[in-house]
Design brief:
There is one protein chain. By secondary structure, the chain is α+β, with helices and mostly antiparallel strands. 50% of the residues lie in helices and 17% in strands. It is built from five helices and four strands; from the N terminus they run H-H-H-E-H-E-E-H-E. The chain is elongated, with a radius of gyration of 25 Å. The N and C termini lie far apart (63 Å). Keywords: Cell membrane, Membrane, Transmembrane, Transmembrane helix.
Length: 198
């Protein structure tokens, strides 16, 4: 890298430019690696190999700078810091993309009519099963939703069934299904005199 920037003081290159380059290179390759693992888990066979190629290519460049500057401990710190930061950034990027489907399971022991009506009106496919729990009869509500809609469904649960138990699981593959066509509306408020269900 010294040969690429001959007009800059070698000390500045060694102490600032090279560690900074390694740090950001590691962020890039680890972020891509995190995405690649997620895509592999979701069975996306075309995207994962391409990301793997880019990931390894960037890694080779970064590790090459390490071997060219073995006496600089800042490079090791930058390498490790970039790795940790890359994991965090990768999870943020994946969360923003919110690709794929999730199964949301809601268990409620009170009347869930308002919640069910809202979900169906918003375009979600909903399956309701009668259940018997420790504290008496209840409902189990299942819905396969797009991951980008998880927050909307969670908001509806907090609004209409604030004490309900719910869990969210990723789904690798699903056939058919009912999903909202347009962005789902914001959950409407219940009247003050209406009793919230669970």
């Amino acid at each position: 890298m010294l040969g690429i920037v001959p007009d800059i003081d070698p000390a500045i290159v060694s102490l600032i430019i090279v560690p900074t380059f390694i740090f950001f290179a590691r962020i890039c390759d680890v972020t891509i690696g995190t995405m690649r693992i997620i895509f592999v888990a979701r069975g996306m066979k075309m995207v994962a190999p391409i990301l793997g190629f880019v990931e390894v290519f960037i890694w080779i460049i970064a590790i090459g700078q390490i071997f060219q500057n073995l006496t600089n401990p800042l490079n090791y710190f930058a390498y490790a810091a970039g790795f940790g930061t890359g994991n965090y950034v990768g999870m943020l990027v994946e969360e923003r993309l919110a690709m794929g489907l999730s199964l949301i399971r809601i268990i409620t022991q009170r009347d869930a009519t308002n919640l069910i009506d809202y979900l169906r009106a918003a375009g979600y496919g909903v399956t309701v099963i009668d259940a018997q729990g420790k504290q008496g009869p209840g409902k189990v509500i299942f819905s396969v939703i797009k991951r980008k809609n998880i927050k909307d469904v969670e908001n509806a649960i907090h609004e209409f069934a604030p004490k309900a138990f719910y869990s969210v699981e990723d789904i690798r593959r699903a056939a058919e299904g009912t999903f909202p066509i347009a962005p789902s509306p914001t959950p409407f408020r219940l009247n003050r005199g209406t009793r919230r269900g669970k």
